[in-house]
Amino acid sequence: MKPFSLLSTLAIALLFVGCTTVSPLVKETQDNIGSGNYEAALASADLAIAENPTSGLGQYYKAVALGSIGQENEDIAARRSYYEDALSTMEEAKSLFDAAEDAPDEAENADDVIRAIWADEHNSAVEVLTVDSLAATFADPNQVAVDHLLNAITLAPDSAISHSVLSSAYYRVGDIESATDAYETVISLISTPDADDYNYMINLYLASQRFEDARDLATSAQSAFPDDERFIQYLADSYLQTGETDKAIAIVEDLIAANPDNPQYRLVLGTQVYQTVTELTDQISEMYVELYDQSQALRGLSGSAKEDAEAALAELQAEADALEAEIVGYTDLAIEQVTRATELDPSSANTYNILGVIYQNKSALYFDKRNNTADYDLADEYDAQAREILDMARVAYEQATQLDEGNPEYWQSLFQIYTTLNMPEKAQEAMEKAGI
Hints:
The chain is mainly alpha-helical. It has helices at about 5-15, 25-35, 40-50, 55-70, 80-100, 105-130, 130-135, 140-155, 160-170, 175-190, 195-205, 210-225, 230-240, 245-260, 265-295, 305-345, 350-370, 375-405, 410-420, 425-435. Helix 1 (about 5-15) packs antiparallel against helix 6, helix 5 (about 80-100) packs parallel to helix 8 (about 140-155) and helix 17 (about 350-370) runs antiparallel to helix 18. The longest helix has about 40 residues, at about 305-345.
């Protein structure tokens, strides 16, 4: 089926209603459109316009011809210029019809002609995005869908649904910036965005690192949907992403103060705080390596060179100690809040899993310190601390598997911990249940 069949059917059905008396040039244009000879129809329409520029009929049929030429074009992206001309020409026809004392029947059909082409382009995009067998016929189906949707929007710039699908199509091709722009248009077109609209838009802002925009929209969303905890989390996350950790914590702490028995608020605070920990951990890991390298280099130095190196080492050690204290403080706060969340809702396997992740990563900090010290006694001390904390992770993960035994992710985490803690039988069982 050719893509222009919908318009052709509609145009033929509408063209001759009430058109018993028309100029020969208009009649010639009608006949050419009816026979599918659109280039000839375009030429005769231009002559009809020149003959009677105030009637509107010439512009009407020229718009029909332009739209039909566009739909016939196999180059989907190249249709757009025809559609732009078709829309502007039809708007001109409507203006002339409005000014006429006795408007022809075509005046009632003008919007339907443009709407039919829009629907064809929009629906073609949706089919490409949702019908796998059709998508398989194109080398780049997502781009094909984008082109169809850009055509649809050319014809109906105020179509929120086309902009919405366009945003999804852009997202699928990895063009986050264009996906964001498209959904900003959606938000501007709809009078009252729903929670899912806010959720999608905020995620796009976060993905494109537009954190202030995410914060502003999350504030509006939280005001519109005060019971939807996602928006509090997004608000806190936007502050975390801009390095304003204290503000992020304060937001959720205020909620906890007002509703201390809400486990979700506790979980949000714990997970948001721990995002900061993961960033700081990368920094301190680099410091540990540098501390080890500098301490080893001291062995070959003497005199003032050694004194200078020792001073530099002491300064770096002080920085590492301060950063480590910050990491431990945030980690302990995260553990405190997520542990409280498990107490308030002991049926949540995910919460226990998150608690296990936090403990496991805390233990990794001490293993990292162990691996980057030349002091054997200190290394043994760090190793013991790491294993003690890792055992707490084991308890949390085991609880998660009891609540959701079929989750392979939980078992894979347990396999790693059992292996590190030298529990071979448990490790074997976890490996089998993880499907490794």
